[in-house]
Amino acid sequence: MAEIVSLAEAVEGAIADGDSVAMEGFTHLIPFAAGHEVIRQRRRDLTLIRMTPDLIYDQLIGAGCASKLIFSWGGNPGVGSLHRFRDAVEHSWPVPLEIEEHSHAGMANRYVAGASGLPFAVLRGYSGTGLETLNGASGGPAVTPTIKPITCPFTGERLTAVSALRPDVAVIHAQRADRAGNVQLWGITGVQKEAVLASRRSVVTVEEIVDQLDPRPGAVVLPAWTVTFVARAPGGAHPSYALGYSVRDNGYYVAWDAIGRDRDVFASWLDEQVYAVPVNTVPVNTGPVNTVPVNTGPAVRS
Amino acid sequence: MTYTADEMMTVSAARALRDGMTCFVGIGLPSAAANLARATHAPSLVLIYESGTLGAKPDRLPLSIGDGMLAETADAVVSVPEIFNYWLQPGRIDVGFLGAAQIDKFGNINTTVVGRDYRNPKVRLPGAGGAPEIAASCREVIVVVRQSHRSFIERADFITSVGYGSGPGQRERLGLTGAGPKKIITDLGILEPDPESLEFTMTGLYPGVSAAAAKERTGWDLAIAADPEIIAAPTPAELGALRAFRGQQGKARSSP
Question: A3-101+167-275: which CATH topology?
Fold first, then answer.
């Protein structure tokens, strides 16, 4: 049954060094506040799982929290590269980063298998791509060992199997929870339901905690008994957005390019915008909305 | 009216989409072209983004595939597993509209790594995203990419998304259900696969672009059609619509 706690307590209670952690949210509802709390608590050796690493994992990777990344698209959407991610892969900075790489369809199906309690999922995919083959002409280890061919027992068709994702922890941001810890999210809901149901534990940050969850079109509801911790974090998806509460801060994504590109500029950003921000220990289901300080835009250094 | 090579490319790509088609849209150049088509000759074009938005009707260019505007204007918003499993995989979608970092003469796309050693790449690119299955399962594929000696290469360093693989018969052997890439639209003109060899051939050139320039900016020995089509310059209406989008995007980007 979901426990309503502060964000710091949720991260402290759910995520340990060495855990596999899936922070999901497909462009929308990306759990940035929770990601920053993980950086502040200086978690190490995490296996980070996410379809689109986005700025949130660029920040966690640059801060040295991760030793492995499982992903399907690692760019800054509409802007360019994730420079901290590239620096880790190309130069092992600040620490070496092992990668396990899929397509979106593969990742989505791996979560579905995890949520379904199955060891693998089947799809038409990867056929003929470099991801399903050995590493180059030298015949090195398989590029992605969690992709294997499989034959349909009914038709004999050649299909592709991908192993299930069973993260230790899922972290998502949602619009609302009620006081019992039932969670509601709407708009682009991505793979959040699957990620939470596939994981052993979960942390859900929310814009607000309300008395009653009135129905919303297309909403996903995660009953309280599927969630471990709920924490109030208004604006916790910024610079991503929460439909009905905020808009995507496109300027932040553009500004991030210059910050992420340079190790020293990034280190200053971490100091000023993450480590120096007070830990969010504000009581959670009391008080008006929007009194909790949230991390605001990047301080752009010229 | 003067125009840039990128504007000509985007207009040319928009023209490749017919009204009423369903189109799975990649972000960047493909998204600009698909939105331009919807704003001009193809108002009933169905835009599908991998974020799960079916029939999105944005009135400005989205910066990402998951902008709120896409969800708010869509006919339906579905989960990410659903968009790939129910909508893309069975072959319901007419055309996949993709970008590329590298593309080879058989239309195979690389968005993974530059360099032949996956474990020690020269450049780490963003990776696959939705492209491998879009390239596999859409009824046909159109690629929009700037043409250069570095991006148009004999053999892709890494095949992220399969075009015609190693040549005729390969898609069938791999069990790929869609027909594969029908056009590569660049800032110089249009390439189409040779009916026999499936090797991409320059079949159209923009006004003022020479066959020699196209060969110069291609990393394989590019064949030019015997009588390449000279593609019409953008109309004032096309340019006006495209620039209106760009202006709006500039505003969106600079907003706090």
Answer: Glutaconate Coenzyme A-transferase (3.40.1080)
